[in-house]
Design goal:
Layout: H1 2-17, E1 28-34, E2 40-44, E3 55-57, E4 61-68, H2 71-82, E5 86-90, E6 95-99, E7 118-123, E8 130-137
Parallel strand pairs: 1-8
Antiparallel strand pairs: 1-4, 2-3, 2-5, 5-6, 7-8
């Protein structure tokens, strides 16, 4: 009888410690956070024709813009495959354009293409890890 209890206990423990199957809501995601007081428009590319992903980001909100395996790697792949070499954000008064490629620059340099300007959070377990990456648009970006 003890043998059966031990087996059941072992199976329950393994079940509780295992990772659940990944669902769509737990895919890795990339967000823009608009920390300005203005609505921000985002265009992929510096000149027309723009890439079809164009976003309108209301003040003080997050806007999901990419979903996949790893947001930074997915962005690098998107830029390589499409030839997009810049991202442009503008408000009613100001514009900021950041140019590719992605680099690892000091934290003091705030740029869309600076990997250190992104807030990266990892969730899940080893088998089903997912990443949430967020880039914050600041008032100082548009000065």
């Amino acid at each position: 009888m003890n043998f059966k209890k031990n087996i059941i206990f072992l199976l329950l423990t393994m079940f509780m410690m295992s990772c659940w199957q990944r669902s769509e809501e737990f895919k890795s995601k990339g967000y823009f956070y608009n920390a300005t007081n203005d609505t921000v428009f985002c265009f992929w590319g510096e000149q027309p024709p723009y890439h079809p992903v164009t976003l309108l980001i209301p003040p003080m909100t997050n806007e999901e813009f990419i979903r996949g395996v790893n947001p930074i790697d997915d962005l690098k792949r998107l830029h390589n495959e499409t030839g997009i070499d810049a991202v442009m954000f503008y408000t009613k008064n100001d514009t900021v354009v950041w140019h590719a490629p992605f680099k690892s620059l000091p934290d003091s340099i705030h740029s869309f293409y600076n990997e250190n300007s992104w807030e990266i959070s990892e969730y899940g377990c080893k088998k089903n890890r997912y990443v949430v990456a967020s880039f914050t648009l600041r008032e100082t970006d548009f000065k």
